[in-house]
Design goal:
Layout: H1 2-22, E1 37-41, E2 44-48, E3 52-53, H2 56-66, E4 71-72, E5 85-90, E6 106-107, E7 119-127, H3 139-147, E8 151-161, E9 164-167, E10 170-171
């Protein structure tokens, strides 16, 4: 009787394993995880990733901060200006969760708008009077503050590939 129970147990276990192996598997494209960073575009939070940079120094700093490879691609610096959008990174002002320790980066031209491209020309934003700094959430706000003399914008030669992952009205 013990022998029959053991045999039955082994057969049921084998049947469960075989049925599990024959069960339909999920199909579709392979999925991958990648680190994302947060920023603002048109007043809304967006999530993006850093994949490549035209500067070896910037690529290394971003790779360290993101704990994920950011490739140095010098040819990005040769991309024509009309194929680039802007990203504004802050060098001082409101403390925040960006790589610099200040407010999150601000993007123009998010997906769904004319001029969207993941290729971004990096500009550094510096508040003239840090005590009057406030969080800005759109490129229009950044440009208006510059026009009012509240901050300066220094365009760098650094081009970054920063595709959006989640944005207002969409996600990958």
């Amino acid at each position: 009787m013990k022998h029959n129970k053991l045999t039955l147990f082994v057969l049921v276990t084998l049947l469960i394993v075989l049925l599990g192996a024959c069960a339909p598997q999920k199909s579709g494209p392979a999925k991958a995880e990648l680190p994302v960073d947060k920023g603002y575009a048109d007043g809304k939070e967006v999530y993006f990733t850093h994949t490549e940079a035209s500067s070896a120094d910037v690529a290394e700093k971003m790779a360290t901060a993101m704990q994920s490879p950011v490739l140095f691609v010098p040819s990005l610096a040769s991309v024509p200006p009309d194929a680039l959008a802007n990203v504004y990174a802050f060098a001082n002002g409101v403390k925040g969760a960006s790589m610099s320790g200040f407010q999150l980066s601000v993007f123009d031209n998010p997906p769904g708008t004319e001029g969207y491209t993941p290729l971004r020309l990096m500009s550094m934003v510096t508040w003239t009077d840090e005590t009057k700094a406030r969080e800005l959430k759109s490129a229009d706000e950044v440009l208006a503050a510059a026009q009012a003399g509240e901050l300066t914008i220094k365009q760098t030669p650094v081009v970054l590939n920063m595709p959006f992952i989640v944005w207002d009205g969409g996600q990958r």
